[in-house]
Amino acid sequence: MRNFQYQKADSVEAAVAAHAGQPSAFVAGGTTLLDLVKIDIMQPERVVDVNGLPLFDVEELDDGRLKIGAMVSNTDLAYHPAVQKHYRVLSEALLAGASTSLRNKATTGGNVMQRVRCPYFRDGVSACNKREPGAGCAAIGGDNRSVHAVLGTSDQCIASHPSDMCVAMAAIGATVVVSGPSGEREIDFLDFHLLPGDSPQKEHALDTDELITHVVLDAPIKGNKSHYLKLRDRASYQFALASAGVIVATDGDTIREARIAMGGVGTKPWRAQQAEKTLIGQPATQANFQKAAELAFADARTYAHNAFKVPLGQQAVVRSLTTVTA
Length: 326
Hints:
five-stranded antiparallel sheet; flavoprotein; FAD-bd_PCMH_sub2; alpha+beta; four-stranded antiparallel sheet; 326 residues; CO_DH_flav_C; 14 helices; globular; Enolase-like, domain 1
């Protein structure tokens, strides 16, 4: 049993100040933090409760963007009228994740900060560079079938990012608004999660003592249709083996705009921007969808047990594009 201090914050400024000065962690729904504390992977000396912060609103901005408070629950966000109307891919992704009880507790900010489900990271004893830099990566030579990536990996870490919500946000385009001792700043969503490279312990672009306050979604593409497809070992309560979140707008049978993001296959929510570009101005055909899907995985690096994720991920992309253009 490890002792830690507990402090409840009633403002963003108070939360940031309470977090400073010692190893600390913010807690909202606690669906990730409490798990990792219980198994001794995270060892905060102070836990700062942010459930009292006024960050529960979803606001439609004058420029068409959607501003989401960090404390908005996954359930409330999935069923928000603006999300269901303009960002169907996000609603579907949220409802594909976890169980109802977890979605009721999990928050937008917490989901963005969700950590990997690699069993070698979470068992506390295996070699893991993310948990103990320089220790090695047991997953590379071990069981790397389900929660390990084929895109964005390095010799230091191959754990896949687990969030469904983040895949949808990567497709939509978003800004993460954070507050810290130096004030407020914005981080492009595609730059927020970091590739493992040589420092897999550094998972995100937050500076020390910064707190996520909002996620602002880009204005919806005019006339778009979107879809999130999650492929997994069982139909519910399971992390993705491969998933695809797509957004497409067409003029007749010609693709005017396309967004493709993938989950379960990357070390971060994976946006396939080169594949998107090949679809612009092209007919919405199976052949073009397959070419885009193959390009999305052109840089894939497979391991002993997860090579199947390449054709499975391609299938997820093709099926999703087919659904929105049918």
